[in-house]
Amino acid sequence: MKRTPPAPLSVWRTLNLDDFLLGVPHYPEHVDESYWLRDAQRMAAAGFNVVRLGEFAWHLIEPQEGHFDFSLFDRAIDVLACEGIKTIFCTPTATPPRWLTSTYPEVLRTDEWGRTASHGSRQHADTNSPVYRIHSRRITEALARHYAGNPNVIGWQTDNELNTTVSTSYAEATEREFRRYLRDRYETIAALNFAWGGNFWALAYDNFDQIAVPRKDNPGFPAPGHLQDYHRFLAHATAVFQHDQVEILRRANSDWFIFHNLGRLEDIDFRGQFGQDLDFLGFDVYPMLYDEMRRSGGHPATQALHLDICRAYSGNFIVPEQASGFGSQPGFSTMTPEPGEMRRMALSSVARGADGLLFFRWRPAHFGAEIYWMGIIDHDDVPRRRYQEAVQFAGDISKIKPHLLGTTVRMDVAIAGADFDNQEAYKTYPMGMPSPLEDGLLLHRYCYSRGIACGFIHPEDDLSRIKILYVPHWVIWRPEWNENVEAFVKDGGTLIVGAMTGTRDENNHIPTELAPRAGLSRLCGVRVEEFGRLAEPGADGLFGLHGTEYGLHNPAKRLPASSATRRYSFSLGNQEYDAAHLYELLRLDDDVKVIGRWTNRFASGRPMVTVRRFGNGRAVYVGTYLTEPLVEALATQLFAESNVQPLLQDLPPNVEVTMREADDRKLLFVLNCDAEATEIKTPPQGIDLITGRRVEEKLTLGPHECAVIQF
Ligand code: GAL
């Protein structure tokens, strides 16, 4: 597996490996050694080429401080290698052994109520702790040195889903590190006081040692700048923790590829040092975990959303863990992929940019807190339908692979994403409003269900391949993004700027100029003179339904619409709609055209959606937040002129479609996400790489069946 140096981060980046990684996370330490050879033979027979090992095995590798024993994994790696299966090893820092937490209890995480994590589950160690960093470096050094010359170890995963159980820390050591970070960032306390607005509520500090980590509701709301810097610090500390490991691994063997498997994207700035250090990103795919969440839209749409978000950070990625069956921990369980669905879910990941995929896990554990998290084979060691589907997927990959590698995922409509500062700025001051992601996902859902190529992109990225860029109320808009975005519009692109965009600077201060700030006003020809809250249709205006940061994300708080709830409406394209969440009143430059207006109460007649032509393109401003009907209205107004068409006409319900493309080829993935057969009336004429048959008139897909049409 050849690795070349990674290209700079971009949604258009392809993987820097010359083969598709295919296999499973595997836990040889969970079974008797007599299983190992049969396991390896079955993996090879399935068509796998790799396993991931060791992420929770520190206690076996270093049973006592300074005493290392690699023998179990050495033997396991050898047995696997004899069957042609290579190993990705992991730094095992998600689960420090008991001797470590007993001898160095200060490495345990402290929560915001001052409780120290107990030893008994995982991710109990604090990656912000300088003492824990020493041990993380020690175990990484030992592993790196031991495996540097082993040709069967081809790459590394750092830790396991950093920050997924918890990302915050309130330990004394964290507080000290936080102060150190602030000292480096601001140099003088006067600069920090300015940034955090020290003259508001007498929050000015005399020196850095007085600063505490912010605590929610203790008793009131902390200053936005304080909170934002705490999360910037957590992301910095996570990156530094990982950087230690990356440095050691790269020094030991520069041929190794290194990635991290992301779970929840909490306090990780992937476009910063964290992502720049890695060869590529890994994203663990468990869409059924979200099935019961409000607005999830079903697990196929959730999987598509998560992978599109993830791709915005770094382009093509691998899936180090792809859900294969029923999943549970003691407190919850997920729905079960139906026959055929595990393979379809894996192909959906490939369709959205996965150039490697490992099914979680080889076999389920017989003990511990995930005994019912099913694997590819069952507890009785019998391979059944999930194994057969893995075999089928491996066959699919061997047919697709020669055409797939080197392609990127097409995106006609892009939503601004992958910006850590905006994600956090929202959380410092959510006001019960939808987050940028909650807003943007309405557009994503619209495109997903109609087969329009849609995804996320950072405004600094190469925008030349997209047709529409929607910015969902990013409160921080940086002047350095303007040139790229202006060039995109000038070259014919359509920029759509949502309300509240560019209302703050990087300190979360409201500037003295009217929003949208930093050049966007000029580009859109719009200034926001007034804004105010609107209730979500059917809800009372008093309680926000959004905003996880202050416990507001609680549907139980939803109140019935009272008679006092005011309805605000607007018109767009000869139709009238209810508005939600926010209104803005706009002042326009002379060259701006109004295409949507407020239609009732005091705002009646004022512009709501505007268009300014610029070069060959246009800058559209939308003075409210999205709702489903508004997305539909905007699409009707704007998509055709931007030449945005579905990838397939007449897409039947529950069929997913994406395109992976390179200069010389297009691969259209058509995936039936349902248990009913379906028919595609006007498929492109080409070869279905999966069946090897030419597709001409219509395409019939059985339950959970997939086609990959090359043309
Ligand atoms: C992932 C985690 C795995 C396993 C899996 C199923 O988030 O990385 O270790 O716990 O979920 O729960």
Automatic annotation (TrEMBL):
Gene Ontology cellular component annotations, sorted alphabetically: beta-galactosidase complex
One example of the protein's molecular function in GO is: beta-galactosidase activity
Beta-galactosidase C-terminal domain location: 655-710
The record, for SUPFAM superfamilies, names:
(Trans)glycosidases (SSF51445), Class I glutamine amidotransferase-like (SSF52317)
Kindly state which reaction or reactions the protein catalyses. Hydrolysis of terminal non-reducing beta-D-galactose residues in beta-D-galactosides
What protein name applies here? Beta-galactosidase
**Where in the numbering of this chain does the Beta-galactosidase trimerisation domain appear?**
444-644
Q: What is its EC number?
A: 3.2.1.23
